[in-house]
Design brief:
elongated, 432 residues, Rossmann fold, 2 domains
Length: 432
Amino acid sequence: MRVGPEVRVCEGAMVGEARTPTDDEGPLDGVTVLDASRVLVGPFCTMQLGDLGAEVIKIERPGVGDQTRTWLPPAFGEGDDAQSAYYVSVNRNKRSVVLNLASEEGRAVFRDLAAEADVLVENFRVGKTAEWGLDYPDLVEENPGLIYCGLSGYGEWGPDRDEPAYDIVMQAKGGLMSITGVEDGPPVRIGVALADIGAGMYATQAILAALLERELGDGTGQKIDVSLLDGQAAWMSYMASNYFASGDPPGRMGSKHPNIAPYQAYETADGYVVVGCSADSFWPRLCDALDRPDLLADERFEVNEKRVRNREALDEALGAEFAAMSTEAAVETLTAHDVPASHVRDMAELFDDPQIEARNMRVTVDHPTAGEVEMPGSPMKFSRTPTTVRRHPPILGEHTEDVLSEYGYTDADLARLADADVIPHPHDDGAD
């Protein structure tokens, strides 16, 4: 949608005017997002915007498209129709347009799309869009309402701005690996790419804030700069504050919590039980569940501060109790006494949970080549404007002709662009 002093933030509503959504419209219905990102951090951000109802146009390079299309197995479907599970996980609710940004003609098409967009998200290396003439200053004159979000490893300024960034490196540089793993053990990477996902979440928040500010203001957009390293530093939260207060960098503690006890996993006769006594009120219940009135009477453990200071003795006593129990018995006993507890579930157990089913957190969508694909649902629940899976993760270039036609490109224009290798030839799948 064209933006300007009288920017339309959604179809049929000017700035400051109310809009009545229909039952199948998300809260961002009418907002157009131009997604020039790939791999995880950007696609995760734009998927959230798509889940919220935005129209997301994903720009992919000719040939392989987003790198994650080739990250298989595992995959949904077989052979040439197979769709990478990784790609599927963060690219629903988008339309795919193959566009060669290495060519000037391709960049001209991109500018046409950007001129009508509300939001642009990109995670090229810092300086690349400026080199192409596609940075915020290059686009804002034509589209003053544009909200431009640049994602990178280290941000747009600072001594490391040009360094490459990968999740495992960012977890190491961002402090996360220094506090993850068992005491005196090797550093451990968190099992999902939290550096990317964290920055993607911050980007989504920033975009939503900028959209609101634009609506409440004069319709002018702005540029957003989000980095993976900044996100990791922010996520250190109380661990960082513990360091600032004590001067001692926290180390690895396994599943233990530096400020709460007991709050960790204990080994049982056949596995592990996780116990979370986050308040002093849980301590008497735990002692009752284990039939240990002596622990309740022990002055070393009467309040959380003392339990933290006497953690070694506490762990020895509780560890012996849980070692003699099965995991199932431990969880049942603790739960019956209203003590927060669980066994450690794997993906199969998680997504077979009736609670997950009740919350629509396991969703399926029909894919035109791969058949039925499954993915986690959206955790954002609204009373009036639902988040839905409206579109399957797109085939490479699936919507190139449709989208460009909507932006005024004729059949002759499409043929000319295809002959110049800017877009795939009509009805091609986007591959070389």
